[in-house]
Amino acid sequence: MRCLLAWLLLLAAACPRGRGEVERNDTGGCGDPAAGCTRRCCAEGHRFDAALRCAPAPEDPPPPRPGLGQLRGYPCALRFRLRPDRDPEDAFQLLDDGRLLAPGVAPEPFPTSQFCVEPLGDGLAAFLCFPDQRRAVSVAYPACMLASLPCLAATFLAYAVVPRLRNLHGKVLMCHVASLFLLYLVLAAADLGAFRPGTVACVVAAFIIYFSFLASFFWLNVMCFDIWWTFSGFRPLRGSEKEREHKKFVMYSVYAWGSSSLLLLVCLLTDRHPYVRERVLSPQFGKDRCWFTTQSAEAAYFYGPMGLIVLCNIVLFVLTALRIVKLKKETAMLKGEESRRHDVEENKQRFVLYLKLFVVMGVNWGMEVISFAAGGPQYIWYITDIGNTLQGVLIFLIFVWKEKIRRLLAKRLCPRLARGSGRPGSQTRGTLSKSVATPSSSYSITTKTTCNGETSRMAREESDVV
């Protein structure tokens, strides 16, 4: 939490200053307030180029409305462009007095301190300053993603340095975490303005964001499928346990990385190949932002595959939960009287497992699809959006910040400390183990007998760390 607050304070102090793009000349051209005044985005003798950057022009374009005085320069560092060609609610009109009316954004006209316009082609390009709420959100999103980065790195390293955690589940989690790390790193940089629209860097960043987004979804799907397969009762693959895990990981890698690469190749062809671009819906990466330009392309290439994956994950989650309930009833018949006192603890463990499954299934990403399809005020979805950007923190808390993982890390990184924490005389004389799970499951119920022959505990143990 301290790390997150530090990032928020740092970015809140840094972001409003912008990148030196606010060039104001509020007195030039507006000597007579009665004549009306508007604001141009570019300085005198400049106009927009193809990348919407102010560049020197052979002649200054005429005022947007004859008779109006002109202020010069962007009025604020954080701003967004109105795009009536993409969203009808972004329609705007420059009034006779120089103010800007955008009914879909606000009922009242905007004064010159909150907007600027610039001739572009046969029309006008208009930019509005972020209101206070949107300014806070524009800072909070990249701050949360940057706060997730150390948590994702810590999760990856924890599973990389402990051999016991590098089983099938650990390798799948590491791939998912690596995809999210790359996604948040580039996406946060793009949100903070590191890449200018229309540049090669912005286009490359858009493709990286798209690929890492898809890879994280497909590896999330792999996690859900593997958990479902564990409890499904299907016959396992042939070979030893190590060979089976290796075969599974190869299959999962081909599916996750291959599917992401295939969709990326489709976007590359439709976006960069001239013949295909003219005949098929094109993503138009990096045109006015480091992402899709049109909502139709975003729906076809991103939200469509994302929605299918989320729906599949929800189905797998429901089937897995039903299978766990069935197995719980079957194993209840094998319990003795001495183990009933452990029901509360086992119910708690089962609830934590359900919670892991539900969080891992990506409920927040499902809400992201719903928000895109339903539309409406953006503030309704702020909570789920913040949850998505903090997913690295959630993953760290779920998969690393627990006693079992801390003990394994201490044993690996500080073996002397781990040996010193052991209690002498706690070894058992004999161990009786009965597995009641399916042949492919790694979950078992173990009964341990102590030196005096009494049953010490009946607890559910996970030989794999999910």
What would you say this structure looks like, in words?
This protein has 466 residues and is mostly helical. It folds into two domains: 26-129, Methuselah ectodomain, domain 2, CATH 2.170.180.11; 132-406, Rhodopsin 7-helix transmembrane proteins (Rhopdopsin 7-helix transmembrane proteins), CATH 1.20.1070. It is 51% helix and 12% strand. The protein contains 13 helices and twelve strands. The strands form five sheets. The chain has a three-stranded antiparallel beta sheet, with no helix packed on it. The chain has a three-stranded antiparallel beta sheet with strand order 10-11-12, with no helix packed on it. The protein has a two-stranded parallel ribbon with strand order 1-4. β8 (115-120) and β9 (123-129) form a beta hairpin. The protein is elongated and about 90 Å long. The chain starts with a helix and ends with a strand. Mean pLDDT is 74; it is low at 1-28 and 422-466.
Question: Architecture of the largest domain in CATH?
Answer: Up-down Bundle
Query: How many distinct beta strands?
Result: 12
Instruction: Count the domains.
Output: 2
How is the CATH topology of the largest domain named?
A: Rhopdopsin 7-helix transmembrane proteins
Measured on Cα atoms, how large is the radius of gyration?
A: 29 Å
* Structural class label: mainly alpha
Looking across the biggest beta sheet, what order are the strands in? 5-9-8
Q: What's the story with the biggest beta sheet? A: 3 strands, antiparallel
> What's the helical proportion of residues?
40-55%
Helical segment tally?
13
Q: Class of the largest domain, according to the CATH hierarchy?
A: Mainly Alpha
In terms of quaternary structure, the protein is single chain
- Mean pLDDT across every amino acid position: 74
Strand content: 5-15%
Helices and strands, in order, run as HEEEEEEEEEHHHHHHHHHHHHEEE
The rounded distance between the terminal residues' Cα atoms is: 25 Å
Write out the CATH superfamily name of the largest domain: Rhodopsin 7-helix transmembrane proteins
Apparent shape: elongated
